[in-house]
Design goal:
The chain is mainly α and 374 residues long. Helices cover 63% and strands 0% of the residues. Bound molecules: magnesium ion.
Length: 374
């Protein structure tokens, strides 16, 4: 019996029939021999984890910048929290945790510096060249830009992993339902940022627990916390509220998914893709999450401190985009080569998108600070 059969057997014993079993993967674009002791999706997970784009997430802001302290999430710790919550949900539903983790680690690696402000600026710069989306950029990175193997460009990930990210990039497109593993990561991303943005915003003093108690989901959570631990206050209250906020959301997603999936025992992953069920919160929690997200948008994401960061970052990125278009000599050789294939605008966009916040600032000050915006 080969090692590979052992992995398939282990998955057959442990995973639900409707999980994406690695033996059923349609494979990779460039054929490769199976690994002796790692399954296909486990290998994808490792390839993403070892990519330079993944490491650079540590220098990219999630919502709050590096000069606002060192408590809050970076794009990397956000990604790790998504992976952890997604694996918790996936394990409970007996789905493929390796694929879930690969998808979670992949989901934000296309983010440019300065979060959504950076994304919007690049999208504007590249408007005549296909625009820019961080979800699509993740695919460009793992299929073209991250060169680390001698026999193929990119990471040569399994089709299922790439398709999961493609679905993120093409939201609202009709067709088959995403694999359950893809849906779990989507649900976990939302659970994660709703919880950690609440935590970070309170910790940074942009909003108080009292103000947030006007939001129905936070007041529900506060009710549960006070019932169990009356008298909690200050930072312990904040931390407990955040733990509870994750727990309430994960539990809701799981109860709903258990109920639904119990009718599908014996179905395969392919059969589940015909179903229009989506892993996610039930209607009541979904409405409460929407209210929380609207509150976070109005009060936190549009807070004057963050609006200022947004304006500065966007002006810098635009100035750098036009600056590099005029100064090809400032671009590394790999980007100059890329320009030969995709043109200078897209290649400059790829270069800027790959930068950490810090590197972007440093390049701006070094070359473009005194240039006139394009
Ligand atoms: Mg995310």
């Amino acid at each position: 019996m080969s090692r590979q059969q052992t992995i398939a057997e282990r998955e057959r014993a442990q995973l639900a029939s409707y999980a994406m079993h690695s033996e059923d993967s349609v494979g990779r674009k460039y054929d490769e021999p199976e690994h002796p002791y790692r399954g296909a999706f486990q290998r994808d997970r490792d390839r993403i984890l070892h990519s330079s784009a993944y490491r650079r997430l540590s220098g990219k802001m999630q919502v709050f910048t590096g000069d606002m302290g060192d408590y809050h999430r970076t794009r990397l710790t956000h990604t790790q929290e998504v992976a952890s919550i997604a694996r918790t949900i996936g394990r409970a539903l007996r789905l493929n945790e390796d694929l879930i983790e690969a998808l979670a680690l992949l989901h934000d690696i296309g983010h440019p510096p300065f979060g959504h402000a950076g994304e919007d600026a690049l999208d504007e710069c590249l408007a005549d060249h296909g625009g820019f989306s961080h979800n699509r950029q993740a695919l460009t990175i793992v299929e073209e830009l991250d060169i680390r193997y001698p026999r193929f460009p990119g990471l040569n990930l399994c089709r299922e992993t790439l398709e999961g990210q493609l679905i993120r990039a093409q939201k609202d497109q009709a067709g088959l339902s995403p694999l359950l593993e893809v849906q779990v990561v989507e649900a976990a991303d939302s659970i994660t940022y709703d919880a950690h943005d609440t935590d970070d915003a309170i910790k940074l003093g942009m909003v108080t627990v009292e103000q947030m108690s006007e939001v129905p989901l936070i007041s529900d959570v506060l009710g549960r916390v006070h019932l169990r631990d009356p008298g909690l206050a200050g930072s312990m209250l904040r931390k407990t509220v955040v733990h509870e906020l994750v727990d309430v959301q994960v539990s809701d997603v799981l109860v709903r998914a258990f109920n639904y999936l119990s009718d599908y025992a014996g179905c395969t992953a392919a059969e589940m893709r015909q179903s229009d069920f989506r892993v996610g919160p039930g209607p009541s929690l979904a409405a409460k999450k929407e209210t929380l997200e609207r509150f976070l948008y109005d009060t936190v994401y549009r807070h004057p401190r963050l609006m200022k960061v947004r304006t500065v970052a966007q002006n810098r990125l635009k100035q750098m985009y036009f600056g590099y278009l005029e100064r090809h000599d400032l671009l590394p050789g790999s980007i100059q080569q890329r320009a030969a294939a995709v043109g200078w605008p897209v290649a400059v966009g790829d270069y800027l998108a790959g930068m950490t916040d810090r590197f972007c600032d440093a390049q701006f000050h070094r070359y473009f600070e005194n240039s006139v915006p394009g």
